[in-house]
Structures are given as C-alpha cells and as structure tokens.
Amino acid sequence: MGACQSGDVQEAGGWNDSPDFTEDNENRRVSVNKKTEEVEAFEPKDKPESDFFEFQAEDAAEDMQQFMAVKPWIGAVKEPDSHPDPDSNPPDETYELEYVYGYRCEDSRQNVFFNPDGNLVYMTACLGVILDKEANTQTFFGGGEVENKSKQVASDKHHHNNDIMCLDVNTSTGRQWAATGQVGKSPSIFVWNTQTGEKKARFKLERNSRAVSAIALSPNAQ
C-alpha cells in the first residue's frame, strides 16, 4: 500500500494545498486512488449535470411571475376582435375656463390690487385673475388652449405656462396694466390689461434664470 507525504495531498474530498499543483488546479477537490496511488479529481457520483437552457427557462418563468405580480392586469387585457382604427385627430370639442378657486399667498406677498373698475386683480397657478366681486364672475389672463412644443410642454408665446410668482399693477397711473413673472428654466414676464386680460407685451429671460421672484412697474407703467 502506498503512502503519500504529509502536506502533498489531503484526505478524499479535501482541498489540495500542494505547491506542486498549478494555479489551474488550486482549490480543486481531489482524492487518492488506493490501487494506483494516483491523485484524481474528486467528483460526486450523484452530481447532476447542469443544463444552461433549463436554468434560463426557470429564470424567465420566475421573472414573468414577478412581472405579473406587479401588473396583474396584463394577462387579463385582450385586444378585441374588431375595433375602429385609431384616430389621432383632436375631438370636436372645446372648453372655456369659467371660474378658478385659490390664490397664491404662501410664498408671495403684495400681489392683490384693484383695477380702474374696482375689481380685484390677483394670481393663482399660471393665471392672472380679474374678479368682479359684485357679480362674482372672473376674467382671465391665460387659461386658453396652447400649442405643445414637445411632450407635456406648453408654449408660453401668449401667456404663462408655469406658476406665476409675482404681480404688480401701475397704481400711480390708472391701474390698467399688470406685470407678472413666472417660474421655469426660461421664465417669461407678461404685461396685460387689468380690465380685459389682453396681453400687451412679453419678455423672455435667459435660460436657467429659474424664476422671476419680484417685479415692479414704474409710475408711468414702463
């Protein structure tokens, strides 16, 4: 019966620490054949053969189960057998802004004025509001239909497309003009009529100006 030197080969199923083994054989489980006294790689008899595609199929099935758990309606939604062709044209409907509730005062001050008719002029969201307190009706600067320059981005060519941050009225000379400034990457400033809500002028700030936090009109409304 042969013998092996201590430190060369460990017991069957152990880890090889012999410096005679190459790096490729490091950490490989080995055993000693008692008949031939040769060192052999140790392989369990009942080791199952790996099936790469089988594992892929199992992983895909598990991913699908997780996806269905998050969106369970996917498997229930079915396309009908017959349906009209998609129509990308806008519907033949129009809308009109009638009344707006609310007023911006949490982070803005001195933004309520009277116009020449004694009606209130103030701001909320991206609208300039003219309130007839006797009839309880409103006229607006903004709020109409606008063109979308890109997805979810409305044009600010005619009125504000983001929250108004400040407002001023020429209280010294007639109170007929209001100036408003908005928040945004390229904020706009508008001058509009406090009686009709019609736009008089528009000014565009440089990109990344972030917001117009304060605005004032001179006594001669310039």
UniProtKB/TrEMBL annotation:
Keywords assigned: Repeat, WD repeat
Region (Disordered): 1-50
Ranges annotated as biased composition (Basic and acidic residues): 25-50
Signal peptide, first to last residue: none
GO molecular function: microtubule binding
One Pfam family hit: HELP
Tagged with keyword Repeat: yes
InterPro entries linked to this entry: HELP, WD40/YVTN_repeat-like_dom_sf, WD40_repeat_dom_sf, WD_repeat_EMAP
Protein name, per record: Uncharacterized protein
Native source species: Strombidium inclinatum
